[in-house]
């Protein structure tokens, strides 16, 4: 994996404008839809079982975000994954708050086991909890460092034959043959709700055009966050400026700002 992989994926998203189906939480629907539009993809928020087979037939990928799950949502999520499998589409799982309650942990593991083609994107505490290790968790916020989750991420990669993105101050993209470390982003980003959810949605956009590790999405959002923070007075303006930065991001800026280390 190299910079050209990321650049090529960004170009492809903007050319293809892939449709990304999101079964996501109430808090972030607007944020994630706007981020997908800004990067060049086409979002749709679909939750009904009655339309999911049709949606996954022509969509590029499926993003499952368990942030506001309940007894109605869980069967819908599992049905959506089954339809993604039937149409050979990649599933991006965002196990929001995994470890904070048994239903979140159990549902996350159920979805991960069901998906044929999978990318998991979570913070360190969620990744550790999903893998079954003892991680510190406070609701949906991470109390573990992303580096502390590397062992858990590798376990998930091997267990589910997937790629894992551990997001935090440093992002790690973990796959079978090693991992990539990204040090972009800004300390203000965690103060905007749903920033990790936005990364998961963007991961779906890049997966839809063949970049199935999560690297391109993490790189693009990290650089966009840096750029946005330079002109933001606080989280409110940062949220708006990130959308602008995603929309305006060019290959030269992305290449110049990216801080990436590959470990194989």
TrEMBL record:
The keyword Nucleotide-binding applies. Its EC number is 2.7.1.50. It is an enzyme of class 2 (transferase). InterPro entries: Hyethyz_kinase, Ribokinase-like. Substrate binds at residues 45, 194. It catalyses: 5-(2-hydroxyethyl)-4-methylthiazole + ATP = 4-methyl-5-(2-phosphooxyethyl)-thiazole + ADP + H(+). The keyword Kinase applies. Pfam families: HK. Keywords: ATP-binding, Kinase, Magnesium, Metal-binding, Nucleotide-binding, Thiamine biosynthesis, Transferase. GO terms for molecular function: hydroxyethylthiazole kinase activity. Its cofactor is Mg(2+). Belongs to the Thz kinase family. Catalyzes the phosphorylation of the hydroxyl group of 4-methyl-5-beta-hydroxyethylthiazole (THZ). This is Hydroxyethylthiazole kinase. The gene is thiM.
């Amino acid at each position: 994996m190299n910079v050209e992989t990321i650049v090529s994926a960004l170009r492809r998203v903007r050319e293809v404008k892939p449709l990304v189906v999101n079964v996501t939480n109430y808090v972030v629907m607007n944020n994630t839809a706007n981020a997908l539009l800004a990067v060049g993809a086409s979002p749709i928020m679909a939750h009904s079982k009655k339309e999911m087979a049709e949606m996954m037939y022509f969509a590029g990928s499926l993003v499952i975000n368990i942030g506001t799950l309940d007894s109605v949502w869980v069967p819908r999520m599992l049905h959506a994954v089954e339809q993604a499998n039937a149409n050979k589409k990649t599933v991006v799982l965002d196990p929001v708050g995994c470890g904070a309650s048994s239903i979140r942990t159990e549902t996350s593991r159920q979805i991960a086991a069901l998906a044929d083609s999978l990318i998991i994107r979570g913070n360190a505490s969620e990744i550790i909890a999903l893998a079954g290790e003892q991680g510190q968790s406070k609701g949906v916020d991470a109390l573990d460092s992303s580096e502390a989750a590397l062992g858990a991420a590798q376990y998930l990669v091997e267990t589910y034959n997937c790629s894992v993105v551990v997001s935090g101050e440093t992002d790690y993209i973990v796959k079978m043959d090693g991992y990539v470390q990204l040090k972009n982003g800004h300390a203000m980003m965690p103060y905007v709700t749903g920033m990790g959810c936005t990364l998961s949605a963007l991961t779906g956009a890049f997966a839809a055009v063949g970049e199935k590790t999560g690297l391109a999405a993490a790189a693009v959002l990290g650089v966009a966050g840096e750029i946005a923070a330079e002109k933001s007075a606080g989280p409110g303006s940062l949220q708006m400026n990130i959308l602008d930065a995603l929309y305006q991001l060019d290959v030269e800026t992305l290449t110049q700002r990216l801080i990436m280390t590959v470990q194989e």
